[in-house]
Amino acid sequence: MTGVVPLCVMEEKRLETELADGLPVQVRPLGPDTRDGLAEGYRRLSPDSRYQRFWVRTGELIGERMLDRLLEVDPGDHAIWAVLDPARDFPGVGAASWWRSEKDPDEAEFSCTVLDEDQRRGVGSLLLAVCWLDAMSHGVRKFVGYTMPENVGAVRWMRDTGAEAEWDGYKVIFRWDLEDLDTIPPAGPGIALAERLAEFSGEML
Asked: Which UniProt keywords apply (predicted)?
């Protein structure tokens, strides 16, 4: 066990739970009313985290057009979720989104960002589980994610949560089979993911 407490209350798409270290957190979908908080969260990322997330080292971090795209309500095809520490509220500790593919409606792109000071606390696995179940409830069967090969932490985490890797000569492409839980490794982040899926499945599916 990783110390995850199986406490889950869903109220208007709000999940109450705890991180592995016991910190009480709330997981909720974001909308236009959270625009300023989301922008502030991205501003707080370190230069290295900004590069790993956006793959650029210069220019505007997150503009109005990107905020519009992230926060546009599109039930069944796109959602963005955040993990919030009630003691500090926005900008929270991390956020993740999924977008259904126009070419393959069974597949959606998953992306995740965790603030530097809140990494290695299980936030990524929590967000992956919530997005996983949310997307499945809308008929998505596969997740795809992308990262640069030098982002060894993300590469390891994606593999440890059961994604299969493919190199296209520029980036690493990872794919999760949302319907096959047997592909989730029984160790490390895989255990945390499996526990979160079990914790929330009754509320979200």
From this structure: Transferase
Q: Which two tokens stand for residue 133?
A: 């179940």
Q: Say yes or no: domain 9-204 is CATH 1.10.287.620.
A: no
Q: Within 10 A of 142 (CB to CB), how many other CB atoms are there? A: 17
Number of helices (H), then strands (E), in the chain: 6, 9
**Which tokens sit at 184?**
């989730």
State how far the Cα of 35 lies from the Cα of 58, in Å rounded to an integer. 22
Residue pair 196/183 in contact (Cβ under 8 Å)? The answer is no
Domain definitions of the chain by residue range: 9-204
The DSSP code for 10 is E
Write the pLDDT tens digit of every residue in 66-86: 777 788 878 899 999 999 998
List the single range of 62-66, 74-78, 137-141 with lowest mean pLDDT.
Answer: 62-66
